[in-house]
Specification:
about 475 residues; mainly beta; Alpha-Beta Plaits; 4 domains; 13-stranded antiparallel beta sheet; 3 helices
Amino acid sequence: MSATKYEYSISVDFPDHAVATDRLISDIRSSAIVTAVDRIDTSGDDCDVWFKDALSGGDETILDGLVAAHEAIPLDPITPGGFLVDPLPSPSGLAVVPTGSPGSTVWGYSVTAYSATGETLECAEVMISNGAAVLGEVNYNRLTWSAVDGAVRYGVYRTTSGGNPATVGRIRRTINLTCDDTGLTTSGGLPSENMSGAIVLGSEVEAGSVKKLDVREMTSDNATVTSLVSVSRRSSEVVEAGFGSGYFVRLDDADGDLRDAGALHILWADPDTGEPESDFRVMLRDGGTSMEERFRITYGGRLELAGVTVIKIDTCRIGFPVDTGIRGGSAASSSNNDVPSVTFAAAAESRIRWTCRPPQNYISGDLTLRVLCSFAGTPGNTGVRWRLDWGCFGASDVLPASYPHYVESTQNENDKANDTLFYMEFTIPAAQFDKTKDMLVLYLRRDGDHAGDTCTLTVHVHMVELQYTGRQFAGQPCQ
């Protein structure tokens, strides 16, 4: 066989008047042309496509069609390393041969290929059942495979082990087409996706394990004007491809030099780790080496802007009004320091109701109605009978004759002194609360006629608030 040349005019035969040789070779190899392509030479307006042997008439027709439909993506010859990479296929032709004294142990292997930007998926596993039980320098498994066009190296994986060593994983990266598994140490598992294809422009590696994607503005004569944006991946260890745990966007200064000054840094991590401040944050550099955190969303739902908490999940409070008047009378009979309150008498039923919309920023958990009270006098060894009724209702509901939920108890007040503030708390279970309803009704009462209510003093209610776990917005509970 002798190589055969097929000649084309770049300005006449190619629609873009340009040739991307790697892409054209890939298109030919993926076509129905049987004869193997050898190389493509371009000089001036000439494009010569060489094959290992002469093409049939049908294959010549296919080649003419590929040339006529060729999409040439011009490469930037000024940007070092700038190119377009098509994904590589996984290696083929993997063979595993036991060397030394064969046995009856099962071993399995796969191989991947690496482009300049990343690794392919592994080829189909090849297994043997006549390997040595213990791999070493004498008894080992020899792997061979076919070359992948465009591959810069290969990854070799032990995928099944029936002997010693028992570990599986990557055993070698190599530029060769063969590997001897003499019991090699494993490090890393099989790839989860094909990372061998990516657009890379100016993919230089800077100091500190920084890989940079450099996007440049071009003039009509294909000369670089300036770098518009640079996206870098930084990591404590070099990775094969991808941008790791964050994007670092660097802008050029007045002299056209890329600098961290003025940079926008967007970082994130896995929110399932449950670590505070781990989800998403934006950090800025402003004219120097120091970096300021401007925006952060944590895994728990907190949002900070310029170091100030804008939204956070915390204990929220809704205050309900009590009597705005001041308990009065002559100086001799007035007490409680004339603090505004509503009075719950010692006999019969004293009550107060509140109606509001259920808090829409409620997240989860039980709610608590907290009542701040005092006595005008010392109650002694006596009890006060408390009860809280509540319910959530929607526009289509019928108001019930009584509230659907309640809690009641007798509180012993013998430890209270005159005008001493104290709390009464009532729990509203999460299962009995519905924030999607239109109305929340709370009915607080003292049953002075109950046998358990033995206090002869009135109770002064000064403040009432509903507490719950919800989102706070700029320090306000908000509905």
